[in-house]
Amino acid sequence: MIDPIFLLEAAVNGVLLGGVLALLALGLNLIFGVIDIVWIAYVDLVMVCMYLVYFLVMVYGWPLWLAGVLSIALGALLGLGVHLLIITPILGSAPVNQLLATGGLLFFLQSFATFLWTTDHRTVRLALPILEVGGMFVSFARLIAFAISLVAMLGLWIFLRRTYIGTAIRAVSQDREAMALMGADPQRVYFVTSAVGGAMAGLAGALLIIQYSVHPFFGAAFGPLTFMICVLGGLGNMVGAFIASFIMSEIISISGVVISTEMGYVIAFLVFIVMMFARPGGILARRG
Amino acid sequence: MSLGRVAGAALLALLALGPYLPMAGMRQYVLHVMIQILIWSFIGGAWSLMGRFGLISLGHGAFLGIGAYTSTLLWNFHGVTPWVGGVVAAALTIVAALVVAYPCSRFQVVGHYFALVTLAVGEVVRLLIIAERNWTGGSLGLSLTAAASDGPLAMQFADKRVFYYAALVLWLAGLWVWHRVDRSMARSAMEAIGEDETAAASVGIHVTRFKVGITMLSAALTAIGGVAYAQYISYVNPDTLAGIGVSLRIVFAVVLGGMYSLLGPTVGTALTIALAEYLRVVFGLRFIGMAETIYGLLLILFIIFLPAGIYGSLRELITRLRSGVIVAGSARSA
pTM for this structure? Predict the structure, then answer.
């Protein structure tokens, strides 16, 4: 029998992992909901930003917060670039081609990263303590990452609710055709969405590098999980994705301790498959 | 179409004579590349049986992995011949396909959602293989135990030519199945389902039966391809035979060639493998990752500029040129 304290520790770590997953999923889900294209390479953009932070901090000795700001800027640029160069020409193509074009980007980023930086795992070493709370060990780095991602999500929420362009973005994700009739410029909405989604990837990169080591196949490790969270939450549904992140992270974290890491992911994916059959519109959708 | 038939017969003769053509010391290498092209074309063809009707699976790695591991494990631990192993592998994947496809069809999981569900299935198989490392070898993979003596019973041959002809026969069998499906009632039914499921059901098409049936066929063929590949390479690895990576590779090759035509998957597979080999030879060990980088870049460009696939676009062009000639000819006579 496993000591309950380990389960509790796993649950706490699950919440912390959930915060980061939610950040990844919210950026992708924003793009997903508005442009209706799955960016298979989304987490690979995060990987590129992680490398940027690694080099700025470990090689050039920049402070972490400044590297993080630059990472957000790079993410926004990458998001815009992907939209202009890859998505715009294929907006009207068959869904499978749209999926595959970003899949080609995934191959490109993975192998280009291998070419530039080899397959070595790289970590930003921070002298942060590990907190002990009632016999549980919680990494301070994870706690900070969790807090910042919560703040970022709150910021995104305010942006979507309180600004004109945010309202336009929400309008497109609800009804694409009607939105254009209302006089908002779809091109502009797409640009802003891609840039904001990319900036979220940059922030996620800066928060992930202090917890995980970066390597060219980082995207393959987190990518599938991120899409599944978006779909599980309901495409374009921010609150749903937020809840789904924590469900998935708790499953992974707790079954990882009870059985094994791989089985944790297996169970999470199986839950996703079953939920797809039971609630295809996402966990918050009413059964139609 | 007689010109096409002549070209086809010439190509077939060339392929049949392949191992005996003079190749100046490159014979073993050329045969190795050809065998891979034939096996992966067969697998790509199996995928396109579903893909052409809008059932975009990103999880064919699951069927490939189940197939390759079933026959390899049965041989290594129980000495079961891959002939029986292959049948067991096909049977297992048919069950797996049924378990996935039936609920997908019943609950109308289509489009993006179908792609993501199959992607999850592929990852589940990959992770299960890694998790059961005590008998699957985990992420280190598993080598096929060498038989006491080569021969058809063990499906192990020292001579690459045997593998070449076996792969050629397999590929032709795959084309034959594709052609049969193309000419059957199932094709019309599946096309109707792909366009509008509700409308198809309203004219009496049994949607679930057709969808599940084509998925099982595609999965079983993919498993057989996996067995063939495992026998040839005599090594299996969860990252090369299951999961998202290999699943995407299959889809890329097929879409690149064009999934709506008989030879599209083969053209796409041949091009991607030839390109990867060429880039590998050019860059070698000097720039690790460069070959794949160019490959990824070309994939994006092809998908943007040739959305119907290379073979599909070529055929369109030829048809347009021909009709252009006819129009010009009739204009002159008039």
Answer: 0.86
